[in-house]
Amino acid sequence: PDSTSPPIDSASSIDIDQVLEASLAEAISRRRNFAIISHPDAGKTTLTEKLLLYGGAIQQAGAVKARGEQRKVTSDWMELEKQRGISITSTVLQFDYADNTINLLDTPGHQDFSEDTYRTLAAADNAVMLEDAAKGLEPQTRKLFEVCRMRNIPIFTFINKMDRAGRDPLLLLDEIEAELELIPWAVNWPIGSGELFRGVIDRRTRNVVLFTRAERGRQASERHLHLDDPELPSLVEQELLDQALEELELLEAAGAELDLELVHAGELTPVFFGSAMTNFGVRPFLDAFLEMAQRPVARSTSEGPVDPLRPSFSGFVFKLQANMDPRHRDRVAFVRVCSGRFEKDMTVRLARTGKSIRLSRPQKLFGQERSVVDDAYPGDVIGLNNPGMFAIGDTLYTGSRVEYEGIPCFSPEIFSWLRNPNPSAFKNFRKGVNELREEGAVQILYDTDQSKRDPILAAVGQLQLDVVQHRLENEYGVQTRLEPMGFQVARWVSDGWPALDEMGRIFNCKTVQDAWQRPVLLFKNEWNLNQLLDDHPALELSAVAPVV
Ligand code: G4P
Fold it and tell me: Using one digit for the tens of pLDDT, what is the confidence trace for 357-381?
């Protein structure tokens, strides 16, 4: 040390550490992060818009809606990409509300459904399960729920469209309990429904929020009063009130308690009734959600659980996005910050390769907009330019080495031969297919017959196949042809080839192999799969590829 410098005062250096720790702890305690899981049309765009309005992140109703509508009219992904020069897969919306910083991870639905949708849930601390009151649980919601279940993500249920005729609320709760094995706990309870929807009773406070349908426009007005308020009977039909109270008694008799520990373990879901379109019940939902939601918590790594309060930065890549800006042909790696404070220009280490990387232009993403971010905290998501350096599941860290648990593969449901009609382009074709597989754009399978060299693309959504074709043409200069195969179900054989050899000839399924020469069985439907399992009870199959 320079002899002219003042002696190091160890007391003050401890103070600095304490200050840093306190500011990290403060940032973490304010952070909430969630994804919405729903089926198309349940009202995700509408609810997102209302939440962003409360957060002041958008100035007017319609800002998000416009995006939703644009998607609907331009159903073709490539068209949209061409027109707007961007791709439309999921991004992150960050907004502040009531002293909290909220990260809403967008999980696209409709034709944009892909493995990225699932991967986004790997970065989420909470999920909001949005149901249409008239439809209850729908297929896409169930699939996304299964992914949440794998990590025991806390689920908050919002039952939407209460202003319209819907199913019996008790039956909606029963369905959640019976089919998802998730205990529902209604935080509020509807008085009437459809045309006769009069509002909700808050079960914890016994306050009533009355719903008044607006004559014109769609915004409902809310009026708050207590259940014992003498004015109430003149405002709501006694019959409807009696019925709601009777149902509430049934719920109380059922005995479950709103136990936050169970919520955080993903075993109990607080349920809210409302109407996103008329903005009824959205603010109470947001307030209750912020109160009950899980803050960023410790995550599993190779070195045991890592607490978000660990002073050194760490995070993992949960999604790679190509061509967000076609002028630069760039890729963006989305990183979920898990511990410490992330700072611009930080030099981090990549756990997989051990390489050091300086992150000079980290980005904050808001929908399609990007701006350079100076710092980020656990629960946040940052975007890094990725010149082929990162892979899905990669851990970035400073300080001592940590490596987060990988992101699982998801069971593909769409299978298609990928044909390369031009033999002279074979090298590029193979290179492109391998690189896109490594990037996680799609899963690749091969026929067991070596003479059939063409790869089989396996995906969870059609969009993935379209993207692969589009990118092979634009980035590798190869035109390809897709030839759909009539399969819908894939299963990895847990005990490998010997298990298959023992079984002899099997029917109604096709045996293929993955990129690691492991056997995979393809079935036309679940029925054929179950038939095989009935015939061979000892056979162990897995819906997802074992981690390599
Ligand atoms: P999504 O993103 O989940 O696909 O759903 P989105 O928000 O686009 O909503 C789907 C449709 O449901 C929209 O109607 C929307 O207005 C309507 N909706 C959403 N929330 C409610 C609600 O609380 N009550 C009622 N009655 N309807 C609701 P649309 O006809 O497709 O569009 P628009 O003409 O209303 O814009």
Answer: 998 777 766 555 566 778 899 999 9
Rounded CA gap, 324 and 346, in Å? 23
Residue positions in the annotated binding site for GTP? 38-45, 106-110, 160-163
- The bridge status of strand 126-132 relative to strand 155-160 is parallel
Neighbours of 265 (CB within 10 A): 13
Atom of ligand 1 nearest to the CA of 40: 4
Number of separate helices (H) and strands (E) present in the chain: 15, 29
416-428 burial code (b ≥16 CB/10 A, e <16)? bbbebeeeebeeb
> How many angstroms separate the CA atoms of 22 and 434, rounded?
46
- Find out whether the beta carbon of 140 lies less than 6 Å from any atom of ligand 1: no
Give the up-direction half-sphere exposure of residue 408: CA atoms within 13 A in the CB hemisphere: 15
- Tell me which residue has its CA closest to atom 24 in ligand 1: 161
106 lines ligand 1 (CB under 6 A): no
Cβ(44) to ligand 1 under 6 A?
yes
Q: Is the pTM above the cut of 0.90?
A: no
Alpha-carbon gap, residue 539 to 499, rounded angstroms: 7
Select from 544, 498, 504, 508 the least CA-distant residue to 528: 508
**Distance from residue 50's CA to the centre of ligand 1 (Å):** 12
State which ligand 1 atom lies nearest to the alpha carbon of 280. Answer: 23
Kindly give the distance from the C-alpha atom of residue 80 to the centroid of ligand 1, in angstroms, as a whole number.
22
Which segments are annotated as binding site?
38-45, 106-110, 160-163
Report CA(277)–ligand 1 centroid distance (Å): 7
Asked if 432 and 478 count as a contact pair (C-beta separation under 8 A), the reply is: yes
pLDDT digits (tens, 9 = 90+) for 381-418: 988 877 678 888 999 999 999 999 888 778 899 999 99
Backbone angles phi, psi at 365, to 5 degrees: -120, 135
Report whether 510 contacts 537 (CB < 8 A): no
| Nearest residue to 77 (alpha-carbon basis) of 527, 466, 534 | 466
The single-letter DSSP state of residue 60 is S
Q: Rounded to the nearest whole angstrom, what is the distance from the C-alpha of residue 43 to the centroid of ligand 1?
A: 5
Q: Is the ipTM of this complex over 0.95?
A: yes
